Amino acid sequence: MARLxxxxxxxxxxxxxFVVGHIQGMRSRGFDVAVACITLHRDALAQAFGDSPxxxxxxxxxxxxLLKRPGLLRRRAYRRILGAQWQSMLPATAGNNxxxxxxxxxxxxxxxxxxxxxxxxxxxxxxxxxxxxxxxxPLLVNFRGYDxxxxxxxxxxQDYASFPHDAVAVAHTAxxxxxxxxxxxxxxxxxxxxxxxxxxxxxxRRAAWGNAVRLLVVGRLTPGKGQHIAxxxxxxxxxxxxxxxxTLTFAGGGETGEELARHAGLQGVSDRVQQLGALSHDAVGQxxxxxxxxxIPSVPRANGWVENFCTVASEGLASxxxxxxxxxxxxxxxxxxAGILVPAASAFELARGVQHAMQQQGPAAWAxxxxxxxxxYNESWMLDDYESVTREVMQRQRG
Length: 399
Prior knowledge:
By secondary structure, the protein is an alpha/beta fold. It has helices at about 15-30, 40-50, 60-65, 70-80, 95-110, 120-135, 145-150, 150-155, 175-185, 225-240, 255-265, 280-290, 310-320, 330-335, 345-360, 365-375, 380-399; strands at about 5-10, 30-40, 55-60, 115-120, 140, 170, 185-190, 210-220, 245-250, 275, 295, 320-325, 340. It has 17 helices and 13 strands.
């Protein structure tokens, strides 16, 4: 059984269903998968994997032990674990955490002996790069969003020059693939996105909208996700469509929860806004089945961040939801004709998009379009691609 080591940051977290799906999928394809994460959430691990969780190595505590050593002893440990030229294996911008975590990962990889490493997000690929170089383990780096839209431009892409020359960058959208091919000096492979159709299964939808419409926003409560835009749009919808009772639900935890609650109060819609906090993956699927319209009000950030793909969009389509989303980044590719795309950062346009969607056709008709689009997010196809590129790099290493 081929061994695969997956690198994650916080693990597992509700906003990163793709990490859990990747692990479960590769295990179903016969890989022995272990996870090396910086921070482990044990309760969430049980929720995500039940009685059969993968083996998990926590990098955070291992790295902290190294960081607590006096400077000279710490550098000696780095030389012992990473070699005399350890500084040259890391980007020039590396702070204190990166070498400690890289050293911890070398120890984990030496113990688990994987035949390939998959890192989720570019910066975690930097942590994995020394292990790949020292131990001769093929490295695949999954790029997801901020890691090529805001992080990399800030460092002028120079940090990623630390990747092994034979590493492979994985892109899940044509948008991401184009950016990576332009800037990286390593191979870039496109891996199709897939959705767990059991977790995100469509519920029967009514033919007409009726008098009550449930709006849903899924994602971390951060400024870039645009939840405040959704609150403003709710106020406009209540004013312009008084015959319809709209409610707005936020599924996700984050730092702006209290601010959003205050904003809803100032807009006079606090009685119509509900925050559910961070949810399990199964709970997110259930709330999608109960909602009528999925809003994706993401806004571009000043640091260059936009939505790369928006996993939530594919999950909403699989759930048969009508989607009204910002027309930016990789969202148009994810939604396409199965939803309504509107200019980003405008509550007026978001509200008008909801009105247009409701005027155009009913929930059942939207569900049919959503399901048709969701067929392109076949989880089996995604795993075919993952298995193909993984076995390819493993075979190359052996030969």
